Amino acid sequence: MGPVAETSRQTQSANAAHANPEGSFSARLAQLAARIEFRRADSDAEREAIFRLRYEAYRREGAIAENPSGRFADDDDEADNAHLIGLYIDGELATSLRLHIASNRGIPDCPSLHVFSDILQPLLDDGKVLVDTTRFVADERLSRLYRGLPLVTIRLCVAAGEYFGGHHLLAAVRDEHRAFYIRSFGSQVLCKSRPYPPLLKPISLTTVYFPTQGAELYRRYPFYRSTSFEQRKLFERPRHATLHLNDESADTPGPMGRKQADLPVVPSGDVRLAG
Fold first, then answer.
1. 1-17: per-residue pLDDT in tens?
2. Which residue from 11, 147, 178, 260 has the highest number of Cβ atoms inside 10 Å of its Cβ?
3. Best CA proximity match to 151, nearest among 31, 14, 1, 12
């Protein structure tokens, strides 16, 4: 390809990106996602690494008191419906979050219920399945290198929504992070800030109602689609009491449905998101 043709191709690509910035950004996120491994923390070493990442992240933001152990864990980490998951970039732990699946046909409890019971208990009584996201933390260095990490990490919540037939994808977030969820996912605020011990800063509660809003998430971020195999690898635990609800949910299942859930994941790539 000659220099004139190459220049023309680059100009066309730049114009296309400018004309469709959302599509371009989503494509870069998909390429980042292809370098990432989501890993359920089953071993003591994996869990310990997550607890230490949590401590560093929360201390950096002044959200917890100093602890000589250098780790941050609580009883909710040991619940039978808890899923601790790490996101690894090229084998290095970059982010982590914790998911609890709450339902009156499974385990009707989750961390956010302890603080927002007046809002969440009626949803459980109505048969809704809650995917409760807490303890979302990121490595400081890697989050600066890869600005799309929060968006990519949320893919775990969407996959859980599909697998468990989730209705509400909940996120307990601090005030300074709330705008990110509203802007990026169309989240609705269920409750403004309340004290959330042992955190030192108050927490608000947001939700995405997955049966109706999930299709828009997939439109904006196509790489959020996950296969049935991937979902089982992340969430299937026969020895625990977590209930797989997707095939039995009384309300609408996830927007992908069972057939779409078997779509192939995004092909591999290698790109860094510019700061």
1. 444 444 344 444 444 44
2. 178
3. 31
